[in-house]
Amino acid sequence: MNNSYAYRIEGGYPVMGEIACLGAKNFAIKAMIAALLGESPSLLTNVPAIGDVDITAELLTSVGATVERIDNMSLRIDPTTTSTSIVPVPHSGSNRAPILLLSALLHHFESVAVPVVGGCKIGARAIDFHLEAIREFGGVVDETDEGYVARRVRPLKGTAIELPYPSVGATETCLYLGVLAEGRSVISNAAIEPEIMELITMLRAMGAIIFTTPGRDLHIEGVRRLKGVHMEVLGDRIEAASWACLACASNGDVTVHGVRPETLGNFLSYYQQIGGGIELKSVGSIRFFRNGELRPAVIETDVYPGFSTDWQQPFAMLLTQAHGVSIVHETVYENRFGYLKDLSVLGAHTQLTTHCLGGAACRFRDKNYEHSAIILGPTPFKAASLTIPDLRAGLAYIIGAAVARGTSHIAGIEYLERGYGDIVPRLASMNLQIERVKIEAERGM
Ligand code: EPU
Hints:
CATH superfamily of the largest domain: Enolpyruvate transferase domain
Bound molecules: uridine-diphosphate-2(N-acetylglucosaminyl) butyric acid
Largest sheet: 4 strands, mixed
Structural class: alpha+beta
GO cellular component, one term: cytoplasm
Oligomer: single chain
Shape: globular
Catalytic activity: phosphoenolpyruvate + UDP-N-acetyl-alpha-D-glucosamine = UDP-N-acetyl-3-O-(1-carboxyvinyl)-alpha-D-glucosamine + phosphate
Keywords: Cell cycle, Cell division, Cell shape, Cell wall biogenesis/degradation, Cytoplasm, Peptidoglycan synthesis, Transferase
Subcellular location: Cytoplasm
Strand content: 15-25%
CATH topology of the largest domain: UDP-n-acetylglucosamine1-carboxyvinyl-transferase, Chain
Number of helices: 13
Enzyme class: transferase
Number of domains: 2
CATH class of the largest domain: Alpha Beta
């Protein structure tokens, strides 16, 4: 990552061509941590070469696990060399992994210390469900100025937990805790995102006994040991949706490879409802294009199978080009619209409100968070300079710059490169005029 670089994009041309999705960031990191639970090495393939994977590899290495890059897309993780349970503070605020490590390592050590978690600043992103889960499994957790310390005096014991909200991270914590805990656990109101289901598949392959149900309950029978596995990271559904929005917003035509269509769920329906076109090609390939004039939409982000909060930003970008008034209600994070205000420099007409617009009242009702957006389109975009505030907003800005006529500059690309790999060559091959340039060389950056 380098703070002194920016993207220079000359927009106004349709983005056309083919792109392969990288492995899903939000599964790759969890799979790396799951590998620590095995008694033999795991091989992970289709691992994206992105900042968040590097950070997680550093965290694993810091406790003594051996992380070996076999090639650009494969990691071999040997948990048997793990030697300490103290994740050093320099990793403080890096990403979401430290809180997941707390439970994974607690099976191997009687005391584990991890630094505070980081990740995009899109809301409070509390971790109280994680800490409560560790306590329910028999651990004791202290919060210190520098992070969290979990202890246990005996092996963790299975339990019944109802999560207050189907949190992805807290569900992962419960899975890490439950698979090697003594006896049975039931996790109610669990998250069921595709990345969670994939983690369950990986843990099962390692020897875990986990039963899913028609609802949000997960039943786990703890086992004494798990073994290493070979796991291929599934294609990133957030990347796929981003490329779909880029194709449609720029009036282009893009075939995305390496994504399971079912993981895109309602996205494909909203996409077609507003005038996007899709064509299923061979297995794992979808063509995205525009089917005439774009229409507005009312969208509410939600936990799976709802419309993912991580699709919200590229889709909002698309809605700036739709004819009429669109509404987007963000119900997962209270503060994920900061980027939208900045879009006015490109020419977007948007308004934020603290009300729950367009759907049912959500957890953020009456809390003064600007978590609903009104988007008035279509507005022609003109080139501008923007600074990325968080990962997904970064991709939305790329779409904005691709639509805008003229040369835009996008700074803060270190946020984007934490989650999207090889952006410049992959997008340049689809006719997007994009370059990575040194900021000093650019006027006005
Ligand atoms: N929450 C709590 N307490 C907790 C845990 C969560 O109040 O202990 C709240 C959060 O504050 C938030 C909501 O529950 O309002 C959902 O949080 P969740 O735990 O589901 O999110 P996460 O595990 O921290 C992952 C992804 C996010 C994605 C969300 C929702 C990773 C590394 N991150 O975060 O991805 O938005 O699930 O699907 O898996 C991204 O990729 O850009 C990104 C932010």
